[in-house]
Amino acid sequence: MEENTIICRCEDLTLADIRATIKKGFHNPQEIKRLTRCGMGPCQGSTCRELLLKEVASATGKNVGDLEMTTFRPPNKPIKVKSIMMGVE
Ligand code: FES
After folding, report:
1. Is the CB of 52 under 6 A from ligand 1?
2. With contact defined as beta carbons under 8 Å apart, do 47 and 58 qualify?
3. Which residue's alpha carbon is at the smallest distance from atom 1 of ligand 1?
4. Which CA distances in Å does 28 have to 21, 75, 83?
5. Which of 14, 35, 39, 54 would you call most buried, defined as having the most Cβ atoms within 10 angstroms of its Cβ?
6. Structural domains counted in the chain
7. How far is the CA of 79 from the centre of ligand 1 (A)?
8. How close is the Cα of 17 to the center of ligand 1, in Å?
9. pLDDT-based confidence at 30, cuts 50/70/90?
């Protein structure tokens, strides 16, 4: 991947942004998430979480499975108040 490849679409983060953070000594995906906001967008990391883990694994020589998974919440989507009152979406 090229340095300008977008890793997190929601937060507009590139591979270079992630690599710069790793280069500063941050190797914990949760720390990187909090520093860069990678995975904090509306999709809650559905795309970028795996890419972040792969990049950290590649930089540290660890397996992706050995890394701590970042926390995430279910994605939000706007719904109408009427839908809540009627019990439908
Ligand atoms: S792509 Fe990273 S939070 Fe959506």
Report:
1. no
2. no
3. 8
4. 10, 23, 40
5. 39
6. 1
7. 21
8. 14
9. very high
In a domain, 71, yes or no: yes
* Domain boundaries, position 82: 6-86
The span from the CA of 47 to the CA of 69, in Å, is 14
Model confidence pLDDT, tens digit, residues 40-82: 998 899 999 999 999 999 999 999 999 998 988 876 677 788 8
**64 C-alpha vs ligand 1 centroid, how far in Å?**
18
Cα 86 to ligand 1 centroid, rounded to whole Å:
31
Residue 62 lies in a domain: yes
In a domain, 55, yes or no: yes
Ligand 1 lined by 10 (C-beta under 6 Å): yes
The CATH number assigned to the domain holding 37 equals 1.10.10.1100
Nearest in space to 66 (alpha carbons), one of 75, 54, 76 = 54
